[in-house]
Fold this sequence. Notes:
- By secondary structure, the chain is α+β, with helices and mostly antiparallel strands.
- It is built from 3 helices and 4 strands.
- The chain has helices at about 10-25, 55-70, 90-100; strands at about 30-35, 45-50, 75, 80-85.
- Strands 1-2-4-3 form a 4-stranded antiparallel beta sheet, covered by helices on one side.
- β3 and β4 form a beta hairpin.
Amino acid sequence: xxxxxxxxxxxxxxxxxxxxxxxxxxxxxxxxxxxxxxxxxxxxxxxxxxxxxxxxxxxxxxxxxxxxxxxxxxxxxxxxxxxxxxxxxxxxxxxxxxxxxxx
Length: 103
């Protein structure tokens, strides 16, 4: 295969679009992080609420990133993020790295 057929991919454009989307989140809103055991058959979950947006697409992107960071499963229920396990400290670390400071 010759050099002329080689295509270089630049991911910088995609990264800048992702950061622009996450910048639209209200990072000054009060975020509630708590763990809950009630009603989940004894399993512990971490609830993250009050992210300050109603856009489900932005919340799903944030959920995907936080699941990768914490190494756990999770879901989006009623504009709140639910993570499996006791991930309070890891989620606080992640949100601070993303620019949320009102935890």
